Amino acid sequence: MNHVLTIVGARPQFVKAAVVSNALSKAGISEQIIHTGQHYDDAMSTVFWKELGIPAPSINLGVGSETHGKQTGIMLQKIEAFILNADQKPSVLLVYGDTNSTLAGAIVASKLHIPVVHVESGLRSFNKEMPEEINRIMTDHVSDLLFCSSNIGVKQLEKEGITEGVHNVGDVMYDAVLTFSKIASEKISLSDITDLQSDDFALATIHRPSNTDKLNNLRSILSAFSEMNIPIIWPVHPRNKSRLKDQIIPDNLKLIDPVSYFEMMVLLKNCSKVFTDSGGLQKEAYWMKKKVHHSS
């Protein structure tokens, strides 16, 4: 493995890449990064690269927000074109997690006979209505090196007949928390983000289509928030702003613009509890010893 091509496109992948890219550099392994542009808003993308010190991408495909099929299809075309026109063929292609960027990268590499490395293999929700579940299953089944964050992932892959190239390496998100949480607190204070005081608020992140695109589900979440006797801060994903425009926002719910990774670390460190449908934030909250109410 002397030349790695990494595919990223969404906020959690930027955080993981910050840790892994640094390790690759220290090991003397060259790396190119393709940013698919799946998260295209500056607050969801560019700020993370600057903040975390990730090497600049060789290209931003600028795919943006589309239907799952169209978005994945555009990525397939553009990733393949980049590889075929590259001066140096990658020795492996590395993908993270379960986004459309992950699946597109894995499919292109497998068809071009480039070994696929999947970080966060073996995770399952066992709910195939979630697009992420389809992405992670298909990616695992074309991958050559499968890096699991726990032995649960190893056992799940074994159940699916995948035993070669499987390794339990721990969770790179935990590495990121250990690396960046202290730095974040030194650079940013809670007052830079909100006027709420320490420990007197909850942090919410709701982004899954099953919760935001279905009006009844979204209204149920807002209603549940209104019954909480605590202020709630919700950094709202750009695609969800329009869905909230015509809804009744509870008085205790404070909607703010998307935050950087460092700002999220500060909010998480200072809040008393977390309401989320994000698997990543759920883990980060656990590591920071915060109570979590999780919605799939």
Q: What's this entry about, in short?
A:
The chain is an alpha/beta fold.
User: Quick one: overall form?
Assistant: globular
Sequence of secondary-structure elements: EHEHEHEHEHEHEHEHHEHEHEHE
Structural class: alpha/beta
Number of domains: 2
Rg: 19 Å
Mind telling me which CATH architecture of the largest domain this is? 3-Layer(aba) Sandwich
Q: What separation lies between the terminal Cα atoms?
A: 37 Å
Look up the CATH topology of the largest domain.
Answer: Rossmann fold
Low-confidence spans? none
CATH superfamily of the largest domain: Glycogen Phosphorylase B
The portion of residues forming beta strands comes to 15-25%
- The proportion of residues forming helix, as a percent range, comes to 40-55%
The overall pLDDT, averaged over residues, is 92
The strands making up the biggest β-sheet line up spatially as 3-2-1-4-5-6-7
Largest sheet: 7 strands, parallel
Total helical elements: 12
CATH class category of the largest domain: Alpha Beta
Q: How many distinct beta strands?
A: 12
